Amino acid sequence: MKTIAFIDTLLCALLICAAGCSRSSSLDFSEEEEPGGLHSIIWLKSLCKGESRLVTEEIVIRGRIIANDRYGEWNRALVVADETGGIEVFAEGSALADRYPFGATVTLYCNGLRLHDYGGKVVLGSEPNAYGFGLSQEELVAHLHRGVDSPAPPESRTVSLDAIGSEYVDTYVRVTGVRFCERGTWCDKDPETGRHIATDRTIVDEAGHTFIVRTAGGCDYAKEPLPSGKGSLCGIIDYFNGRYSLRVVNREFDFSE
């Protein structure tokens, strides 16, 4: 009898161990288990090896909103970042900043979404359709949950223009001691429609290094004069078809020097 009892105990222990091993090697976890199952943004982006990749695993990302459509700077898109990097999330609709304000903590449930190689940069969206691959409002609500904490301004990383490379893409940075090379307004006008259009301007630092600042034509300050003198800008490093640019966020620039 003692032998049988020992065998039963051993079998129970083995079954418990097997169940635990099976669960730890699986990406199947509930919302209550999120802290142990969170994944990094840099790892999520590494899954996209081609033009597109459907996420079929239960991958959960937690980060903060570092860009939205406040001031019209990022139209139909949000940028979410954690300590490893950031990712642009394409979404349909407007007033996204009302639901996902700058600095808010969010949890992103990626299962069922699709990673895309967009001009050499990995972004997150839905299945392509006639309007692109932005998430519908229903998809956005289902996959991107805002935390209960009050939004707090994220910290920017100060970087020199000559140091900007792939590791800074979709991250929140600050450049200081720069001047605009051009005069005029932030954005040019389309000669046919008279509407302001996305425009590239050039900044230069004291060492002579230059960089592109790209501004959306629909931003609130598109028709305002470019700042004069020397100052700083905060924004997101963008990348498209071999070209880096800085996109201002939260209307954060100071040229009071």
Description:
The longest helix has 23 residues, at 2-24. Mean pLDDT is 88; it is low at 1-36. The chain is α+β, with helices and mostly antiparallel strands and 257 residues long. It is globular, with a radius of gyration of 23 Å. Helix content is 17%, strand content 35%. The strands form two sheets. Strands 1, 2, 3, 4, 5, 6, 7, 8 and 9 form a nine-stranded mixed β-sheet that branches.
List the helices and strands and how they pair.
Blueprint: H1 2-24, H2 34-37, E1 38-39, H3 41-46, E2 52-54, E3 60-67, E4 77-82, E5 85-90, H4 96-99, E6 105-109, E7 114-118, E8 121-125, H5 137-143, E9 144-146, E10 157-158, E11 172-180, E12 199-205, E13 210-215, E14 231-240, E15 243-254
Parallel strand pairs: 1-3, 5-8, 10-11
Antiparallel strand pairs: 2-7, 3-4, 3-6, 4-5, 6-9, 7-8, 11-12, 11-14, 12-13, 14-15
